[in-house]
Amino acid sequence: MLIGLCGPMGSGKDYIGEKLLEYFEKSSKTIKIAFADQLKINVMTKHNTEYDELYIKKNKKSRMLLQKEGVENGRNVYGDDIWIKYLDNWVKVLRGKGYKIFIVTDVRMKNEMDYIRRNGGILIKIKAHNRNLDRLREETNGDENLINILKNHTSEIELTKESDEYFDIIFQNDYSDSHLFSKQFDEIIKNVKQLK
After folding, report:
1. Within 10 Å of residue 92's Cβ, how many Cβ atoms?
2. 163 phi and psi angles, rounded to 5 deg
3. How far from 117 is each of 30, 33, 125, 167, CA to CA, in Å?
4. Whether the Cβ atoms of residue 40 and residue 54 lie closer than 8 Å to each other
5. Other CB atoms within 10 Å distance of the CB of residue 27
6. CA 91 to CA 41: how far, in whole Å?
7. How far apart are CA 178 and CA 16, in angstroms?
8. pLDDT tens digits, 66-95
9. Beta-carbon neighbour count of residue 185 at 10 Å?
10. What would the pLDDT profile of 159-192 be if each residue is shown by its tens digit?
């Protein structure tokens, strides 16, 4: 089972993924995985970038390195499905090790969404406009030029081309109250259980 979390930077994909992992790992071997895991390894290796700068707290340099590695040095050189191929191969390896549920925390491109669908997964669109703006300001120290560069990168705008109807669940995560979060989280659980 693939669960695809879609949303712009700072929308809460990793946080929601962590909550899903906590829930599902009680009953099935579950793992959080990302299309960007392989490209993060590439950036760490090629550019001596620290783990924390890519997985914990990105900054403008690490974000731009990821965008460049992912699109300019990845998709544009090896084809639009390069990161899908990497993830698909990791899924095969991990299935062989007993994993059943894969929470994909960084679905951003249309072909990545299609991959999740083709493989019987569900797509969750996370909407968090204010969180996204806060993250952009944080990573760029409020530099409007850098904000525009980051937010207009292909990896950030591709998702906006799809209407909400394309997704199985719309998750409002813009500093909402905990009751709304719990209600939406329960909807995800219900949908996943129906597909299992």
Report:
1. 9
2. -75, 160
3. 19, 16, 13, 10
4. yes
5. 11
6. 17
7. 13
8. 989 988 999 899 999 999 999 999 999 999
9. 16
10. 778 888 989 998 888 766 677 778 888 888 887 7
For residues 4 and 113, the answer to whether their CB atoms sit within 8 Å is yes
| Single-letter amino acid code for the residue at 153 | H
Contact call for residues 111 and 80 (beta carbons, < 8 A): yes
Long-range contacts of 96-102, Cβ-Cβ distance < 8 Å, separation of 24 or more: 98/29, 99/29, 99/30, 99/31, 100/1, 100/28, 100/29, 100/30, 101/1, 101/3, 101/24, 101/28, 101/29, 101/30, 101/31, 101/192, 102/1, 102/2, 102/3, 102/30, 102/31, 102/33
Distance of alpha carbon 111 from alpha carbon 85, whole angstroms: 11
Which residues is 122 bridged to in the sheet?
A: 3
Residue 107 near residue 35, CB atoms below 8 Å: yes
Question: What residues contact residue 132 under an 8 Å CB cut-off, 6+ apart?
Answer: 7, 8, 9, 10, 11, 151
Q: For residues 11 and 129, is the Cβ–Cβ distance under 8 A?
A: no
Amino acid symbol at 103: I
Domain 2-195 part of CATH 3.40.50.300:
yes
Q: 163 is written with which tokens?
A: 């209407």
Residue type, 164: D
pTM: 0.83
